[in-house]
From TrEMBL:
Source organism of this protein record: Metallococcus carri
Protein name: TetR/AcrR family transcriptional regulator
Tetracyclin repressor-like C-terminal domain span: 84-187
Domain HTH tetR-type: 13-56
GO molecular function, one term: DNA binding
Alphabetic keyword roster: DNA-binding, Transcription, Transcription regulation
Organism placement in taxonomy: Bacteria, Bacillati, Actinomycetota, Actinomycetes, Micrococcales
DNA-binding found in the keyword field: yes
Amino acid sequence: MPRHKEFDEQSALDRALETFWSGSFAATSTEALCASTGLSRSSLYNTFSCKSDLYRRSLQRYDQVKAAERNDYLDRPGTGREVLTALLADVLGLQCDDPDRRSCMAINAAVEIGDNDPQVAALSRASFDGFQEMLATLIARGQDDGSITSTVPAAELATVVHTTLIGLQVRARVSTDPANLTKALHTLLSLI
C-alpha cells in the first residue's frame, strides 16, 4: 500500500517556485529545494521526479499566477493608455523595489536556459505570448478610446512594448538608477 503524502504538494511547488525565482535553475541546489519545501530528498524526487521537472512545473505555476495578476488590469477603469501605463510601471516598479531585483521568471528561464530545454523554451514563449496578447488588448482599447493615437496595429505595438519591457527588466537586475528605467518606460509610452 503506497504511503499517504503528508504535505501539500501545491504549497511545496509554490515554495520551490520562490527558490528558483530568487536564484536560477543552475544555482538552485537540491538541498536548497529540500530546505525551502520542507521535503526530504526522497519525497522531493518521488513527488516531482527530478529537478528539471520541478523547475518546469514551477515555471508553469509562475505563469498561471502572473497571468491572473496581469489579467486583473483588463478590468480596471480608465483609458487604455492609463491602464497600460499603470501595468508597465507596476511590473518595473515591483522589480526595482524587490531586494533581490527578481526579474520575470520566464525571462530568467529564456536567458539562462534558452532552447537548450525545449519544454522550458515553450513555457517561456507561452508566457511571453500571453502577456503580449494582453498588452495588445490594452493598446487596442487605447486606440478605440483615443488615448493611444498610433495607427500601427495593436499587435505590432504590443510586440515593441513587450520586447522593450523585457530589456528594461533585464537591465533592472543590475541598475543602480531605477529613475533611468522609469524615464525609458515613459519615453516608450510617448512613442505610441
